[in-house]
Specification:
about 40% helix; single chain; binds S-adenosylmethionine; alpha/beta; about 280 residues; ten-stranded mixed sheet; Rossmann fold
Length: about 280
């Protein structure tokens, strides 16, 4: 199992939330604006960022199911969400939170999305996912869209990496490092050959083919001195992944990284957000 440690998810959370595409979130908010209650299932939930990011613009009463195969992340999600709510009460199988004017019930489901493409409970109306689709294969995305279509569900998919990386100041070695990193993004993360930088385009194409009304937009991470720790960790991740492909040597990746940690002023990593609903 590829692990995504909660410390890394916590470091990226403020940038994730700041980067979301407001037109995409607005389309999602609008789609459910006449409802008083909504049932939502979050895939690859990690520590529960989707609740903290999306609950504020969704209906007053929300019933969430967080799905992840990593029990440790789900346990951390429970603790972080309990502290995030204005008040929190344990339920038999989850948590009941009050947050601003929202009543939010959360259930936790440890499931493997490879084995179960559609783990949402009956009655779910919206499926969400954040930073998940680039790990999955195009085949899995196609199967997911079929299940969404069959159940008439909407989807909000945030922060799929789109292959664009801009590092300032430019360095002649960047192109080779970034191309190795993008190749690494397409290695198997458990779902078969990962769609990596092609994830958002694949998801959008499958949803449009299935007749969905799609709103999509850019949601880049724009890192600089104010987010230096995240920028440095991202650069380390890029260097490590690039070396793992064998397309650049460990030594070259390390030298490149040392120079960037000393000299990088800004780093932009491109993402796409997508909201799609079945056409009326
Ligand atoms: C990049 S993290 C994103 C976490 C969270 N959505 C966020 O944005 O902070 C990907 C998440 O997907 C989960 N994941 C990866 N493969 C999975 C699988 N086969 N089944 C269920 N969850 C999976 C990981 O455990 C991790 O929590």
């Amino acid at each position: 199992m590829n692990r995504f440690p909660s410390a890394w998810l916590a470091l990226r959370e403020p940038m994730d939330i700041a980067s979301h595409n407001q037109d995409v979130l607005g389309a999602c908010a609008h789609a459910f604006s006449t409802q008083d209650a909504l049932s939502i299932c979050d895939l690859g939930a990690g520590t529960g960022i989707s609740i903290r990011a999306f609950a504020p613009f969704l209906p007053k009463r929300q019933y969430w199911t967080l799905v992840d195969h990593d029990a440790e992340n789900l346990d951390t999600a429970k603790d972080i969400l309990a502290a995030w709510g204005n008040s929190a009460q344990a339920m038999d199988d989850g948590l009941a939170l009050e947050y601003a004017d929202k009543h939010i019930e959360v259930r936790f489901s440890q499931r493997d999305l490879v084995a179960d493409t559609a783990p949402w409970p009956a009655g779910t109306e919206l499926v969400t996912a954040s930073a998940l689709f680039d790990l999955t294969s195009e085949d899995w995305i196609g199967r997911l869209v079929k299940k969404l279509t069959g159940d008439g569900l909407s989807i909000l998919a945030a922060l799929s990496f789109d292959g664009r990386i801009h590092l300032n100041p430019n360095d002649i070695r960047n192109e080779r490092i970034f191309s190795a990193f993008c190749a690494h993004q397409q290695t198997d993360k458990g779902f078969g050959t990962a769609s990596g930088p092609g994830a958002a385009a694949a998801l959008e194409a499958h949803l449009k083919k299935a007749g969905y009304a799609v709103t999509s937009g850019d949601s880049p991470w724009e890192m600089g001195f104010a987010s230096q720790q995240l920028m440095h960790e991202t650069l380390k991740g890029i260097a490590t992944a690039a070396a793992e492909t064998g397309a650049v040597t460990q030594n070259d990746a390390e030298n490149w990284l040392d120079d960037q940690i000393r000299g990088a002023e800004s780093l932009i990593v491109g993402h796409r957000d997508i909201f799609a609903k079945p056409q009326a």
